[in-house]
Amino acid sequence: MDSLTHIVLGAAIGELVAGGRLGKKALLIGAAANSLPDIDFVAAFWLDTSRDVCFHRGITHSILFVIVMALLLALPARRFWRTTNMSFGRWAIFFGTELAVHIFIDAFNNYGTGWFEPFSHYRVCLNVLFVVDPFYSVWLGIATIGLVFLPRGHRSRSRWALFGLLMSTGYLLYSLGNKWQVDRAVERGLRAEALGGRRYFTTPTPFNCWLWYVVAEDSTGYHTGYRSVFDPPGRPLSLMAQPKNASTLQAFQGRKDIAYLLRFSRGDYTVGRYQGKLTFNVLRFGEMQGWRDPRAPFVFHYFLEAPEDNRFVVQRGRWRNWNAESIKAYVRRIEGK
Description:
Blueprint: H1 3-22, H2 25-35, H3 49-55, H4 63-80, H5 88-106, H6 134-149, H7 157-192, E1 200-204, E2 211-217, E3 221-228, E4 239-243, H8 256-265, E5 269-274, E6 277-282, E7 301-303, H9 324-334
Antiparallel strand pairs: 1-2, 2-3, 3-4, 5-6, 6-7
């Protein structure tokens, strides 16, 4: 999730786990602890893009990191805040909870989270929440604001924290239900397109859990499209063929950046052209307003012939050409129109 979500999520958890002993310090310490796994962003200053996308949400988002850091942080915290009557074990539970929740909720995005690093490069990627979803985060934000202003010891503090956590969790469950509904509709649509039984995945489009991006694999590549939970049941699944063109990569054999990109893509990629340049496209990040233009370029596109021109590739072009008209079109498509 985005940094702001981790801050307010950490604050709410901090209040529940240690607010009674730490007071309002629990909000600040919780926010910092929940944000800690994202310290891996500093790697971008010395890693090239292909290595950085694999390192991000890697070892710092692993179960091993949670265990080790919870213990390492507990000792200085116990010494620094002696007067809070927090034991080493309680501090370890506090930090462990914050870190574990961070890597847990991140796994619901489409980036992929390396729970099992360094023993396995497998990424947990559930494709349920967009990385920035205000409908998930707003409840936690409201709760945190309330906790900042409520005096220490107020009987309503735990209720505010529970409100934020329960509402955000309710939205997560609602998103899971929407994904299940969309997946059933996609399966019916794929059967109608003679693609039944093929591997596919769905992932939410920006800021919502109602319009979903669809990727279905076939023998030549992929088919991409969109499905809203508000689409009429009989609406056909409109898909665009996306040739994989894997053979094109033979010209780049031996390059380390290609090996990292293949690992990061988990095999779901195409090779195409954008702005006249040959690109490696990771499909799960979606297209630039593909709900308006079926031939829209992919958000994650890596220029194969100019590796030095690849920075911030994960959301490259995501917000290009967004304006009042495109937002209206987006809302209409969410509504199933």
